[in-house]
Amino acid sequence: MGIFGRKEQPIELSGEARQSALDVARAHCDEKGWPFLEPYSVKKQGDRLFVLTRVGVRGGNVRIELDEAGLSVVESGYANH
């Protein structure tokens, strides 16, 4: 299994696909009142995109799972400590 609980290994995204995922994730965080802080990671695994914030930093991390086709939020969480 991959690090996100799926069989395929995640692939780091770049370019327009990355920016689109970050835009959706930022809007979701704004709605929830969560911080959206760098550094970011945007990975693709299967038909899902995963946006992680504050990569490599403990606490204040947001994890958002997006459906790749419609860029809709499937699941999200915030670790405030």
Outline the structure in words.
With 81 residues, the chain is of the alpha+beta class. It has one domain (11-79): Nuclear Transport Factor 2, Chain: A (Roll). The chain has one helix spanning 15-32, and strands at residues 11-12, 41-45, 48-52, 61-67, 73-79. The radius of gyration is 12 Å and the shape is globular.
Topology, element by element:
Elements: E1 11-12, H1 15-32, E2 41-45, E3 48-52, E4 61-67, E5 73-79
Antiparallel strand pairs: 1-2, 2-3, 3-4, 4-5
Considering the chains and any ligands shown, give keywords for the structure.
81 residues; alpha+beta; 5-stranded antiparallel sheet; 1 helix
Helix and strand pattern: EHEEEE
Would you identify the CATH architecture?
Roll
How far apart are the termini?
Answer: 27 Å
Determine the CATH topology: Nuclear Transport Factor 2, Chain: A
CATH top level label: Alpha Beta
Strand order of the largest sheet: 1-2-3-4-5
The total count of helices amounts to: 1
Shape: globular
**Coarse structural class:** alpha+beta
Rg calc? 12 Å
Number of domains: 1
The fraction of residues in strands falls at: 25-35%
| Uncertain regions spanning at least 5 consecutive residues | none
Helicity level: 10-25%
How is this structure best summarized?
The protein is an alpha+beta fold and 81 residues long.
